[in-house]
Amino acid sequence: MDRRALLAGLSALPLTDLAFATSVRADVPTEGRVIEMTNVRSAHVQPRNVTVWLPPGYDSQPDRRWPVLYMHDGQNLFDASKAFAGEWGVDEHVSRLASTGQIDTPIVVGIWNTPLRLREYIPADLLTALPADMRGEVQAIYGGAPLSDQYLRFLVEELKPAIDRDYRTRSDCGCTAIMGSSMGGLISLYAMMKYPAVFGRAGCLSTHWPLRIDAIEDPAALAAWRDRLVTAWTGVVRAGLPDPMSHKLYFDRGDETLDAFYAEFQSAVDRTVRLAGWPSDRFRSLVFPGAQHNEASWNQRLDTPLTFLLPAVRE
Asked: CB–CB of 49/18 below 8 Å?
């Protein structure tokens, strides 16, 4: 298995420098309504695009308010022509689950990534917890110090207030979810740990715990790296977990391609979460045999985190 090729997609993805604008997109077949916010500026991070998807019924039910699902790597969610390597089909999944009453139907906000994706998505608290030599190696590979705290400030202080102002949201913690895959899984977990009063639900698919497996070819060296990193990870998670009675946490992974390296990391984190008192109705960690580390696999199983994190509200 070529580890360097597997990891190459973790960072990529261009961002076109467009003048600020908001428009309804009609070129992509979908139920609901897609709104593109281009070149959204921030005091904390680089400008980026944001895609807002309003679910079926939003326009015809003016008195209804909706939960919100924030998702990273926003260009990969709705439109294959804009995606790096395929799309999640989020609009189709949510529309179908909504039509059969299986979820509390959300507005979906897709935050596009930038060339600084790795630095924005790696939790700063983890870098602080690493031994100095490991910290230096990760920062060298990722291109500098982490920018995740700044990225989360953009979400919490700028983007979410704008979404709550401009759309009919249910803005409380229990109605605000965050989700991503790979490095997006890391930043989703970190968001809920750093801002538990804002994000009450976190979905972490194929979470990229190892950080730099491509750079370690020797099995013994890789095992040593893993053991030290697991120690750092479990400490950060143990210290940062919010109250399970008011939050929900979802992990999953496949067992092919890059996901094949995740089992020991994920098992250690799962034990940490369970020891912290998270019951099965608030915490779930699943394995999907045969699933790979790509958008096609995340698309195939998206129903599972959606129905767990945003279950239908029964009257």
From this structure: yes
Residue with tokens 């326009």: 59
CA distances to 83, 103, 275, 287 from 295, rounded to whole Å, are 9, 22, 32, 16
Distance CA 290, CA 292 (A): 6
Number of C-beta neighbours around residue 20 at 10 A: 10
Ordered per-residue pLDDT tens for the chain, 315 residues: 444 444 444 443 333 332 233 443 434 345 799 999 999 999 999 999 999 999 999 999 999 999 999 999 999 999 888 877 788 999 999 999 999 999 999 999 999 999 999 999 999 999 999 999 999 999 999 999 999 999 999 999 999 999 999 999 999 999 999 999 999 999 999 999 999 999 999 999 999 999 976 666 788 888 888 899 999 999 999 999 999 999 999 999 999 999 998 999 999 999 999 999 999 999 999 999 999 999 999 999 999 999 999 999 875
Handedness of CA 287, 288, 289, 292 (dihedral sign): negative
The residue type found at 59 is D
Contact indicator for 77, 50 with CB cutoff of 8 Å: no
Residue 147 structure tokens: 């920018």
Asked if 264 and 222 count as a contact pair (C-beta separation under 8 A), the reply is no
CA dist., res. 108 & res. 303, Å (int): 14
Give the pTM: 0.90
**Closest-CA residue to 109 (of 126, 91, 130):** 91
Joined tokens for residue 249: 């946490």
- Round to whole Å and give the CA distance between 267 and 75: 30
In the numeric block, which tokens belong to residue 245? 């009675």
Tokens of 3: 């580890």
Q: How far apart are CA 279 and CA 176, in angstroms?
A: 20
How far apart CA 241 and CA 189 sit, in angstroms, is 9
